[in-house]
Design brief:
The chain is α+β, with helices and mostly antiparallel strands. It contains 14 helices and 33 strands. An eight-stranded parallel barrel has the order 4-5-6-7-8-9-10-11, surrounded by six helices. Strands 30-29-32-27-14-33-28-31 form an eight-stranded antiparallel β-sheet. Strand 24 (about 500) and strand 25 (about 505) form a beta hairpin. Helix 5 runs parallel beside helix 7 (about 195-205) and helix 10 packs parallel to helix 11 (about 345-355). It is globular.
Length: about 650
């Protein structure tokens, strides 16, 4: 009898070992509160990284650095607006938009992917990733809700996105483990559970009911009540803390919303992002970050470091937390810097992971830092006034009798909107409603700037003087400084109502698209060639020499590179406020007079051997960067921030 019992037990043991389903899969085991990867218990240490903030030729380098930390996964949000620029366009999936290639490159480097499909992702990105053109849809009554018109647009987007993801799922032997819907939804306060269920069902419809879905919310009861769903894994956002018991309490609350859930901090926010005009410093000591990670890991929690590499918000893609726009640099004190260097925090995190007994994904060798250089100073000359440049390239315009058109109406999603009309008399100009900054010109001469809201500044009136005894050109250029990314889509941009002089409504407006693109080279090559021809045909050297360099203008110059290009930083100290393009690339906004960011990262991919065209679009007037006859563009090999 004893021998028979031993035989039966052996059979059970053999069955347990050889009968286990080890086929590719990713599942929840609510009995043991664990993830199962291919049938085995699994914990992840991930790093959040944004493909849309990194030139695609640098993806492999940055992902190698993430893997060298000892991480086994990355967290990746997908911004809808980055892929679908216009409602009637097919989404973009090549170059910097090639999400599939990014995920496959991560897999090649030994990293699984945790995907955040939104549609709202936050990420300090314009409108939280929601397209500007949704604002044009008058049928939408409420965003981020079960509103039928809004969900119809989301459904169409998911029809494009999710079939790209399906072959990459773990169950299909791919690297994508699980999918997040929405982001910090509980904090919004709408509590539309039908909306969350609609999103979950859409994902399951395209990817299968066996795909693990999850939500992310702050560990606060009312937020998690609004942001979670039955049968969808609830996870939490945490921050570094040295208060005993806090981390344990956070995970206890998370698990209270799903019986048998593994502990997951899907967003471990270790560093703040930077904003124009605000003193943001590194809030958390490295030791507190590491101790919090250790505490979470000791509780068998999976964690994702936000951010591990921030990168750069090129173009006009930055978000805002009113009254502060997010800076072009998204360095965010991350362990992998904007230019790819590793720092002390990186070394500390890597050292902790090296000390974890039996960790199956030990750190790999750290890649050498990429070469950087400080190119010689470039002399810039005035090409034209800002308004002269805009009109010179024949922008697309809409004429209206009374009210100027909003940016969304004229299909101008990002950057600037140009308005002009004629006036006979000067006086106090009053623009009741506009967004975000308005630059006022009389006969192409700069009058001053208005700010809807910046820091403590709010002004919507300005005294306009100097009218000639004739019709005078009144021009207003409105900058879209970045739609708020925090929680709810904002109103439209540009001028949003009537404009008054002496309390009299100004009429006969032109509302025009400003031709400064926010897109990559492959999308604007035709526009760029048109711009080059315009410069060659219209450059007036005599006029340029006599131009007033301190006025808002377009400045141009050439950087000559004799060998292979290297990464660099453009030093904007001495300039006012504007945007810089190099060759076809919009390298981002600068606001050196406000800070804290003083330099713009220029990746080598944006440069080439030979002549490189630099254009400063200066909207408030340069200061020490200019003499009476010319201005300078200086380069450095290090980033500069002033606080």
């Amino acid at each position: 009898m004893r021998q028979e019992l031993i035989f039966i037990l052996l059979c059970f043991a053999v069955s347990a070992v050889f009968g286990k389903d080890s086929s590719p899969s990713f599942k929840l085991n609510t009995t043991t509160s664990q993830f199962l990867l291919d049938g085995d218990p699994f914990t992840y240490i991930a790093g959040e990284i944004h493909y849309f903030r990194i030139p695609h030729l640098k993806w492999d380098d940055r992902l190698k650095r993430v893997r060298a930390l000892g991480f086994n996964a990355i967290t990746v949000p997908v911004p809808w607006n980055f892929h679908q620029l216009f409602q009637d366009d097919d989404p973009l999936w090549s170059g910097d938009h090639d999400l599939v290639k990014f995920i496959k490159t991560a897999n090649t480097n030994g990293l699984y992917t945790i995907l955040r499909v939104g549609p709202y992702i936050s990420a300090e990105w314009d409108n939280g990733g929601l397209p500007w053109w949704l604002i044009r849809n008058g049928k939408i009554n409420k965003f981020r809700s079960s509103d039928a018109a809004y969900m119809a647009e989301v459904t169409q987007w998911f029809k494009h996105l999710l079939p790209k993801i399906a072959p990459l799922l773990r169950k299909n032997a791919g690297p994508v483990l699980m999918i997040q819907i929405e982001h910090l939804y509980g904090l919004l306060g709408i509590c539309d559970q039908l909306y969350m269920l609609d999103l979950a069902n859409l994902v399951w419809e395209h990817l299968g009911n066996d795909v693990v879905l999850f939500t992310t919310d702050a560990p606060v009861v009312q937020f998690m009540r609004c942001g979670t769903l039955p049968n969808v894994l609830p996870t939490i956002e945490i921050t570094p803390t040295n208060v005993d018991g806090t981390v344990e309490n956070w995970f206890n609350l998370q698990k209270a919303f799903m019986q048998g859930a593994p502990a997951v901090a899907s967003q471990f926010v270790i560093n703040p992002y930077k904003m124009w005009g605000r003193n943001v410093t590194d809030r958390y000591a490295n030791s507190v970050i590491i101790q919090t990670a250790k505490t979470a890991f000791a509780l068998n929690a999976s964690i994702s470091f936000h951010m591990t590499h921030g990168g750069t918000t090129f173009g006009f893609w930055n978000g805002a937390v009113e009254p502060y726009p997010v800076t072009t640099s998204y360095d965010s004190f991350a362990p992998i810097s904007e230019s790819g260097d590793v720092n002390e925090l990186y070394i500390d995190i890597r050292g902790w992971i090296l000390s974890i007994p039996g960790w199956a994904y030990p750190p790999t060798p750290v890649p050498a830092n990429l070469p950087r250089t400080a190119y010689p100073t470039v002399q810039l000359t005035v090409f034209d006034t800002i308004s002269g440049f805009i009109l010179g390239v024949n922008p697309e315009c809409w004429a209206t009798k009374e009210t100027p058109r909003t940016a969304e109406y004229i299909r101008d999603g990002y950057g600037y909107v140009y308005y002009n009309t004629s006036i006979i008399e000067c006086g106090q100009l009053y623009i009741p409603t506009f967004s975000d900054n308005a630059y006022v010109f009389l006969n192409q001469n700069f009058v001053g700037a208005l700010y809807k809201q910046f820091n403590s500044i709010h002004n919507n009136t300005i005294d306009v003087q100097g009218c000639l005894d004739q019709f005078n050109s009144l021009e207003i250029i409105v900058e879209i400084t970045g739609r708020p990314h925090n929680y709810y889509p904002d109103m439209s941009r540009g001028i949003q109502g009537n404009v008054y002089m002496h309390n009299i409504t100004l009429e006969n407006w032109e509302s025009c698209v400003v031709p400064i693109d926010t897109y990559e080279v492959s999308m604007v090559e035709e526009n760029y060639e048109k711009l080059q021809r315009h410069i060659e045909e219209n450059m007036d050297l005599q006029k340029s020499k006599s131009a007033v360099t301190t006025n808002p203008s377009v400045f141009i110059g050439n950087l000559h590179i004799s060998g292979a290009p290297a990464d660099t930083f453009l030093d904007t100290r001495g300039w006012g406020k504007g945007v810089v393009t190099i060759n076809q690339y919009n390298i981002g906004r600068y606001w050196a007079s406000v800070g804290p960011q003083q330099t713009l990262f220029v990746p080598s991919e944006f440069l080439h051997k030979g002549t490189n065209l630099i254009m400063f679009y200066e909207f408030e007037g340069a200061t020490t960067a200019c003499t009476t006859t010319s201005c300078t563009a200086k380069f450095t090999n290090v980033p500069i921030f002033y606080y």
